[in-house]
Amino acid sequence: MLGQGAIDWKKVLAECPDDVPVVLEYPIDTRDELKDELVKIRTVLSERKEGANS
User: Fold this and answer.
1) Which InterPro entries does the record cross-reference, listed alphabetically (predicted)?
2) pLDDT reported for residue 32
């Protein structure tokens, strides 16, 4: 799950230009886990977008 692995996914995402599509792929067992992971991703992307608009 995001935040539990060896790779700092937020740092990696921050290194990618805004115009480059990014795909994160990893196993998720339940629908609830999927919902939780999507919240994490959407939060980071929203913060990134807000920072770019500042």
Assistant:
1) Xyl_isomerase-like_sf (IPR036237)
2) 97
